[in-house]
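FIELD: query
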Amino acid sequence: MLNNIFLSNLLCIDIETAPAFPSIKKLDAEWKDLWEIKSSRLREEKENPDEHYFNHAAIYAEFGKVLCITIGIFFRKDKKSSWKFRLKTFSGDDERKILEDFAELLKKYYSADKYLFCGHNVREFDIPYLCRRMLALQIEIPSLMDVSGKKPYEVHWVDTMQLWRFGDYKHFTSLRLLAAVLGLPSPKTDMDGKDVGRVYWKENGLSRIVEYNRRDVITVAQMILRFKNLPLLAENEITFAD
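FIELD: result
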């Protein structure tokens, strides 16, 4: 499987997002109205307005912000060597700096068409979210990310959720579930995606979010090796760039 995909051309990626503000009370009247219109289908009966905002705003690029981006690349010395995996993380409270630094890295090292983003639900969440946030902050979108106007079959990103579907579009399969099915360690240990906003705004736990984000990228990398029927990465084959 994936015989036409070269590991060294993959950019494994995952992002973490949070509500742009810790409370709906920080929104002015116009933005509160826009939020109600956008999010009405997600409202749960037991949620008050502030809980509704805090629990759901992060999934929308219009109402959330990027806290963390981790990318990982496969590399090896030669064809006889085992694959290794290096990760680099962009994180912090300054979303603009995160996005600018990430965009600069892509423009400098990964502008060639041969490179492909790889992630879980990367087609429908991670990359579109980053593009929307960059546009909102007037940051130039790197060519590797800019697929505006392209047809779906012209976008060759590798999405592990799509790979697992094998053409069946009836069900969503989480990263955690797919990891379990493939016999991989769970990326979800002390927190899950729904906890990110709370950990960031209420617990000041950005470092925990970074670790969580990195585990997701490592899990995606291991999945790709599983799909290609290759040996998994050992712990000492995974490194982190400064």
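FIELD: remark
The longest strand covers residues 64-75.
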